[in-house]
Amino acid sequence: MQAPCPAPTHALASLAVLIAATVLAGCASTNTADAASAPTQVTASAENTVVCGREEGTGSRIQVTRCRKVAEVEARRNRDREMADKIPTVVPDVR
Question: Are 42 and 18 in contact (CB under 8 A)?
């Protein structure tokens, strides 16, 4: 005699347990992107201090190590702040 086929609900329940275990395992894994993106100091002279960090390009998950001088980072931050300050803001008229 042959064994009866398992019910379709048993197969779906097994699949659901497998998917849930996979999702939970993915949530429990560590995120190395946060640790890798922390800048690290490479040289220590006053004017030529270089800071390196891991970055992802727009639309990509591939990380690249970028090194910049601290003076370049500060200049970029100041330019970005000036541009943000120039953006016109409109206060909504709520009457």
Answer: no
How many domains, in total, are found in the chain? Answer: 1
Query: Domain for residue 94, yes or no?
Result: no
Given the structure tokens 């329940």, which residue do they identify? 13
Is 23 a member of any domain?
Answer: no
> Which residue ranges of the chain lie beneath pLDDT 50?
29-30, 35
Exposed/middle/buried for residue 85 (C-beta within 10 Å: 0-12, 13-18, 19+):
exposed
Please indicate, yes or no, if residue 13 is contained in any of the structural domains: no
The token pair at 66 is 């970028």
Q: 0.85 cut: is pTM over it?
A: no
User: For residues 6 and 13, is the Cβ–Cβ distance under 8 A?
Assistant: no
